[in-house]
Amino acid sequence: MLKVKDVTKYYGSHLAVDHLSFEVNQGEIFGLLGANGAGKTTTFRMIMGLLEPNQGNITFDEKPIDYTMTDKIGFVTEERSLLTKLTVKEQIIYYGILKGMVEEDILEKLDIWLEKFHISEYKNRKIKELSKGNQQKIQFISGVIHSPQLLILDEPFSGLDPINVKMFQEVILDLKSKGCSIIFSSHQMEHIELFCEKLVILVKGKVVLSGYLKDIKKEYRKKNILIEGDVSVSELKKIKGVLDVTLLNQEYQVKIESDAIVEKVFQAISKSRITKFVVEEASLNEIFIEKVGEAYDE
C-alpha cells in the first residue's frame, strides 16, 4: 500500500503541494487529477524519491521510499524519455539493468511484452524508426519491464489512436488484476471514469475533491436528462431548477440542479411525442470543471 500523509512541498517561497494525503491499496487504480501547475508532477517526483517533502511522509508497504524501494516503482510519462539511437532491445536492456534485473530475464520479459503489443518485429529496430504510437508502447514497456508493485501512469494514452488506447486499457487492467497498485493521471476524464475507483483533484497543490468516484458522483446533486422528441426549449428553460438546455446529436441535454427537478421536466413534456427520457449522473468532466473553477474563483 502507498501512503501519502500530510505532504507539503515548497520551491523557495512557492507552495507546490499543500498538506496532501491519500492511500493507494494493492490492486487499486487511483486517479490524481488537476489542471496544469496543480502539483501532480511534484507529487510523482516525491513518490519516486526524487524530491523530499518539506513536511509529511510517503511510505510504500509501510517503509519510507528510498533507493532500496524505487526498484518496486514504475513510471510512464507523457514526455518521451527514450534514447532514440538505440534499438528497442538495447533500450529495454538498459532500463532493466537500471532496475536491478539481469539481461536474461529482461530479454525473456521483453519478448512477452512485444508480443502483447503486437510489435515483436521491432525488437532490433532503432527507436527513432518507430511511429509515435509504437514509441509510446516501448516507453510503457520500459516502465513495467521489472514488474513494479507500484506503477505511475502520467497521460499514458497521449498520441495513441483508439485501437492502441484499447490495447493499453486491457494491459493496465491486467496489471491491476495481478495486484499492481496504479496511480493514473490524465486530462481525459473518460479514461479516469473507466479506470479509477478513488481520486483526488488538486488545485494549486491543495485538495479540492477526494474520495471514491461512485460516491463523488452520487453526492454531486446536479444531473443531466437526455431527451429525444418534440420539446420546447424555451418552456424547459422556464422551469425553476433547470440550469441549461442544449441540443447534442439530435437529443436535448437538460442540466438540472437536483433530482427534485426530474418530475417537473417530465410533466412539462408529458404531452409531447417523446422517444427517450433518461436521467444520468453528471460526468466527471463536468464535476472537474466546476470544482476547479470554484477553487480558482476563491
Outline the fold blueprint:
Blueprint: E1 2-11, E2 14-24, E3 29-34, H1 40-47, E4 55-60, E5 63-64, E6 73-76, H2 88-98, H3 103-116, H4 132-144, E7 150-154, H5 162-177, E8 181-185, H6 189-195, E9 198-203, E10 206-212, H7 213-219, E11 223-229, H8 233-238, E12 242-248, E13 251-256, H9 262-269, E14 274-281, H10 284-297
Helix pairs in contact: 2-3, 2-4
Low-confidence segments, given as residue ranges, are none
Let me know the average pLDDT: 91
How far the N terminus sits from the C terminus, by CA atoms, comes to 34 Å
**Biggest sheet character:** 6 strands, mixed
* Beta strands, count: 14
CATH top level assignment of the largest domain: Alpha Beta
Write the CATH homologous superfamily of the largest domain.
P-loop containing nucleotide triphosphate hydrolases
Radius of gyration: 23 Å
Q: Structural class of the secondary elements?
A: alpha/beta
Describe the structure.
The chain is α/β, with parallel strands linked by helices. Helices cover 35% and strands 30% of the residues. It is built from ten helices and 14 strands. The strands form three sheets. Strands 6-7-8-3-9-10 form a six-stranded mixed β-sheet. Strands 2-1-4-5 form a four-stranded antiparallel β-sheet, covered by helices on one side. Helix 2 packs across helix 3 (103-116) and helix 2 runs parallel beside helix 4. The chain starts with a strand and ends with a helix.
